[in-house]
Design a protein that fits this description.
Order of helices and strands: HEEHHEEEEHEEEHEEHHH
Strand content: 15-25%
Largest sheet: 4 strands, antiparallel
Strand order of the largest sheet: 7-6-10-11
Helix content: 25-40%
Number of strands: 11
């Protein structure tokens, strides 16, 4: 197979190769070698890029917008959390109030009304980052939902934040409740509570959005995005604090056992009984004590101690076990 000016073979003479110095590209084909000119490679690369763009079906003007500049709508967006201090791993929500201060109506779409949380607020194993809004007055459907906000009107959207995927499950079942506890411990064991930044981006249309045959808005480029931010304080999961306190209590009990601070009389059965009862009492004592301390921290008590993360819970459990075990043995002589 030979084409003039487009390919040569390995058995060609050295002079032939010297005469074709502008050939670059070397394609092995069986026992021969085909060299492709640089101009042909440019054409092939261009055709390949066009093929990729056609397969992606990317509507640049529809998704990004044209060269024109859009007039910013006079719209205010305010974020309100459902609780003052959300708890990691538990259900909470954000309300977004959209106030149309302009003299023209605006349109918003649920999947283009986005809330973005800090990665720490989702948990270690979650890949989520953003979510679309829930429109309370529209009928739930697979297509993009649309709401018109007239001049001077306010409309509130909701973002439900649930880091545990419970779709298709009964949230009140014992199995789901137990799963929620395990997921909270798994995802937020090393969560560092504090203040986090959340943001919301709302695409606002000054004209009605356009839909395709699947009910998806196609002219996002004709909308004006408005972004707002808010700082929110998030606390550690109480299940993580209880686990940390129990861990600290068990470590302290083992230390007391090794240093002979726990009285052991009798044979192997008495030893086993003392260890099992001691471990059980330490976990219950430290768990209840940590919950009580965390509740007193939210009141106007004279002395308050705040347990923020798992490390503080472990230290708290250790201290409770160290000073509380002796008092517990005196309170219950038969332990």
């Amino acid at each position: 197979m030979t084409e003039s000016g487009s390919q040569t073979f390995e058995n060609a003479s050295d002079d032939d190769h010297l005469e074709n110095e502008d050939y670059i590209g070397n394609i092995k084909d069986g026992g021969g070698s085909i060299e492709i000119p640089e101009e042909a490679l440019d054409v092939l690369n261009m055709l390949q890029k066009n093929k990729i763009l056609e397969s992606c079906s990317f509507d640049y003007e529809g998704e990004i917008g044209g060269d024109g500049i859009l007039d910013p709508p006079d719209v205010d967006i305010t974020l309100y959390p459902s609780r003052n201090i959300p708890v990691a791993g538990e259900l909470w929500s954000i309300s977004g109030e959209i106030f149309n201060r302009s003299t023209k109506p605006i349109w918003i779409v649920d999947r283009r009304t986005i809330l973005t949380l800090a990665p720490e607020m989702w948990g270690q194993t979650s890949q989520a980052g953003s979510m679309g809004a829930f429109f309370p007055t529209t009928k739930g459907r697979q297509e993009d939902e649309l709401v018109r906000v007239d001049p001077g009107a306010k409309y509130t959207v909701i973002w439900k934040v649930n880091t545990i995927d419970d779709r298709g499950r009964d949230p009140n079942s014992f199995k789901q409740v137990f799963r929620s506890i395990i997921c909270a411990i798994r995802d937020f064991t090393f969560f560092n509570p504090g203040e986090f930044l959340i943001s919301s981006t709302v695409h606002v249309w000054s004209t009605p959005p356009k839909y395709d045959e699947n009910g998806v808005v196609t002219n996002t480029g004709d909308s004006f995005p408005i972004s707002v931010t808010k700082n929110i304080i998030m606390e550690a999961s109480p299940w993580v604090l209880i686990l940390g306190a129990m861990t600290g209590g068990i470590l302290c009990f083992l230390l007391q056992l090794l240093y002979g601070l726990v009285n052991i009389d009798g044979g192997a059965w008495d030893l086993t009984k003392t260890i099992l009862v001691g471990l059980g009492s330490s976990t219950i004592l430290c768990g209840v004590g940590t919950v009580l301390i965390s509740r007193l921290a939210k009141t106007d008590f004279l002395l308050t101690v705040t347990v923020k993360d798992i490390w503080g819970a472990i230290a708290t459990g250790f201290i409770i076990q160290w000073f509380g075990y002796e008092a517990l043995t005196k309170l219950i002589p038969n332990i």
